[in-house]
Write a structure and sequence with these properties.
The complex is a heterodimer of chains A (463) and B (286). Chain A is of the alpha/beta class. Helix content of chain A is 45%, strand content 11%. In chain B, 80% of the residues lie in helices and 0% in strands. The chains are: A alpha/beta (463), B mainly alpha (286).
């Protein structure tokens, strides 16, 4: 049965290739991609946006009250705009933003300041959880579980959202924070390098770091200038794959595995940009560059998936020198996503929890898009958690005739299954990063490095 | 009647500092006992002594307690012995005493935060000491196998606290009447007899104060340790303060409060035993 299916699929592919001969090269590759049995698209329902338009528009709500948003780390102009819009619908709710960190303040100082505020239970009603160890806050009862708020709100429609993101962020079946958007990494390969080395363009809806390194290993012996990407140093491994070895949600840690040690050894042997080169790159850095530019010696470009952005939508397609993006997953198979940007939770000490929920709902609901200007969309970096809005933005970015592209990205978005919490490690992340740099500097062995990282992480988990 | 008025006056003078201690130390500490008895800051359900039981059965907490105990057992006696010897030397010095005293008191004047960078330059993995060892032909592996971080912590503690203890001991030494030594000399006692039967005996109240202060100060070395090795050091130097500081940052108030009370009880018990021993020793010579 499987063989029959494969033969049929191959014939189908060939027919498609033949039929698409008259179309341009980009569409050709795209068709090939989407028709591959490995890339079977799900039955994505794209009619949600029209369904939701039939719902009644909410009138001005006269609810009275006061809300305080506590934003511990980074100052943002974004709140002014958001509050202004919120007050158009809820004119009698007064919102104050407090606690923003001074520009340039060290993360650890900001985190300590936040801990004092939160422990005194005077921080406010809503907290911006971006970069905060929010799972620990939730575990220690400081944050409300947002699932009951969603379930009990007749105006909230779960089906409008990427519920897989909510599910992937749960801890012990509780959802302590809702992001306005999420993203994940995607890889685009350098076509010339792959062609020179007679390596097939990787296909599939997912690729992991180990597979990328395997391709690198095949090319590196014959190309001494090869780099993974001139935008990254060895820290890319920490960002991309640390979650394969540590899962805070299930207290699972496995840094002393052979696989981890092998990867460390491989990374050390690889060619990376020098510190001076990195400095030049990052001084002139923009996310767009990272998406678009593949240096002639770069094996690939590893960039964030922010396809609702028009510029990034352009790189979705096959280019003369680069392949279509493939979403990255962790080596352990998790299709992880990251949350970076505005990310709200309700403090359990809040006296205005229902009002706080109204505000959070307002930030993520579909109507928000109506007044979301181009510039402000950057604040919702990545893919909006509201699926209807994400689809609308993608359709606007890709154009009317690219519905299949929108469908594919929507599929990628829908199958993200676990939040990568590496960015919430805080002080632990700094410690493990220092240990790894000791290894890369040749001061400790890979085995010692793995042992030391394991030891520190075990301390973190046992605490 | 006059005595009573005098007592009231004493209390009146003590009142401002007592109020400060009550307000900023005693009341918060007593209040934190409530946190040790609840499940978390959110639901605040009463859980009895469950947090204490959890702490006492937590491997990491026990390891931290063991490390802290080891650090105190090494650093405190060593610091006291060095301080006593230095203060005796200072007392015996006839020339250059002022200069020596100023040099010894230097660590009390310099803010410890600024000196941490000096320790970092010395003891960091890429620090001066390791560089010298590498130049001398020692391998990275040897350094990794022989790094004794506890030794570095003891050294930092000594640097920070010996001068303070010297001041206390010196003051205690000056209170011992000279005729006691003369009497011992007349009885044929030598230098050792003078030291053990006069100096040590009459210095015992001061020694007790120094011991008390050293134990208290041994908990204050955390700032330097934290700045050198961060929140997650290796398990051999992971102290109770690391445990509590990290609980604070993750807002686990129940764990923090229960650990603090266990530590308070342990130190209290040690001090009580020491106080009884010191009293017994002093009484036996009177």
């Amino acid at each position: 049965m499987k063989i029959k299916f494969k033969i049929c699929s191959m014939i189908f592919c060939m027919i498609l290739i033949l039929l698409s001969g008259c179309k341009n090269q980009n569409e050709n590759i795209y068709q090939l991609y989407t028709s591959d049995p490995d890339n079977m698209l799900p039955n994505v329902v794209l009619s949600l946006a029209t369904e939701s338009e039939t719902r009644e528009k909410e009138a001005i709500d006269e609810t009275q009250g006061e809300l305080t948003i506590y934003s511990p780390l980074y100052p943002s102009f974004f709140y002014d705009w958001l509050i202004k819009e919120f007050n158009k619908r809820y004119p009698n709710i007064k919102i104050t933003v407090r606690g923003q960190q001074e520009v340039g303040m060290d993360y650890s100082v900001g985190a300590e300041k936040a801990a004092v505020e939160l422990m005194s239970q005077t921080a406010g009603d809503i907290i911006d959880l971006n970069w905060m160890p929010y799972l620990q806050y939730g575990k220690n009862g400081l944050l409300e579980d947002l699932n009951p708020y969603m379930d009990n709100d007749p105006g909230f429609y779960r089906e409008d959202y990427y519920t897989n993101v909510f599910k992937g962020m749960e801890y012990n079946d509780k959802l302590y924070g809702i992001p306005l958007s999420f993203f994940y990494y995607s890889v685009r390969f350098n076509k010339s390098i792959l062609a020179e080395n007679k390596i097939e363009v990787p296909k599939g809806n997912t690729i992991n770091f180990k597979e990328i390194l395997a391709i690198y290993d095949r090319i590196a012996p014959g190309n001494d200038k090869l780099m993974l990407s001139h935008y990254w140093d060895t820290s890319i491994f920490e960002s991309l794959d640390s979650d394969s070895y540590l899962d805070i949600r299930s207290d699972r840690v496995n840094f002393i595995s052979e696989e981890y040690i092998d990867t460390l050894i491989k990374l050390k042997k690889m060619r990376w940009p020098t510190q001076e080169e990195m400095l030049i790159v990052w001084q002139t850095f923009s996310l767009r560059d990272m998406d678009v530019n593949i240096d002639e010696n770069d094996l690939c470009s590893i960039a964030y998936s922010s396809y609702p952005d028009k510029g990034n939508a352009a790189v979705f397609y096959d280019k003369p020198n680069s392949t279509m993006p493939i979403p990255l997953s962790a080596t352990n198979g998790d299709k992880s996503f990251l949350v970076n940007g505005k990310f709200f939770g309700i403090l359990s000490s809040s006296k205005n929890k229902d009002l706080a929920w109204k505000f959070i709902r307002f930030c993520i609901e579909e109507k928000t898009l109506e007044f979301l200007e181009e510039e402000q969309r950057n604040t919702y970096f990545g893919n909006l958690v509201n699926r209807n809005n994400a689809l609308k933005l993608m359709r606007a970015a890709f154009g009317k005739d690219k519905e299949d592209a929108v469908m594919l990205i929507d599929h990628w978005n829908s199958e993200r299954d676990s939040e990568s919490d590496y960015w919430t490690w805080g002080a632990l992340g700094q410690t493990t990063s220092t240990i790894r740099s000791e290894f890369y500097a040749g001061r400790i062995t890979a085995g010692d490095c793995a042992k030391q990282v394991q030891e520190r992480v075990e301390i973190f988990l046992k605490e | 009647m006059r005595y009573k008025r005098y007592t009231y006056l004493l209390w009146l003078f003590l009142l401002p500092s007592l109020a400060g201690v009550m307000l900023f130390y005693c009341i918060p500490f007593l209040y934190s006992f409530y946190y040790a008895l609840i499940d978390n800051l959110g639901s605040r359900n009463f859980v009895g002594l469950r947090n204490f039981k959890a702490a006492l059965t937590n491997d990491l907490f026990l390891q931290a307690a063991g490390n802290t105990l080891m650090f105190i057992s090494i650093a405190v006696p060593l610091g006291m012995v060095i301080a006593l010897l230095v203060s005796i030397c200072l007392q015996k010095m006839e020339r250059g005493r002022v200069a020596a005293t100023i040099i010894i008191l230097f660590p009390l004047i310099i803010p410890s935060g600024t000196i941490v960078y000096f320790w970092k330059v010395l003891f960091d993995n890429n620090g001066l000491i390791n560089e010298i060892l590498l130049k001398a032909g020692v391998t990275y592996e040897w350094i990794a196998d022989h790094e004794w971080k506890m030794g570095i912590l003891v050294l930092i503690f000594l640097w920070k606290n010996v001068s303070y203890n010297v001041v206390l001991f010196w003051s205690g030494l000056n209170w011992i009447p000279k005729n006691y030594y003369e009497l011992m000399e007349m009885e044929g006692g030598g230098a050792f007899a003078k030291f053990f039967r006069v100096t040590l005996v009459y210095l015992s109240p001061t020694t007790f104060v120094v011991l008390l202060m050293s134990i208290v100060n041994s908990f204050r070395v955390f700032k330097e340790v934290y700045m050198l090795y961060g929140s997650y050091p290796s398990t051999d130097i992971y102290m109770l303060q690391h445990y509590m500081n990290n609980q604070f940052l993750s807002l686990s108030m129940q764990k923090l409060a229960s650990a603090a009370y266990i530590m308070f009880l342990a130190i209290g018990l040690v001090l009580l035993v020491l106080y009884r021993a010191q009293k017994k020793l002093t009484d036996s010579y009177q």
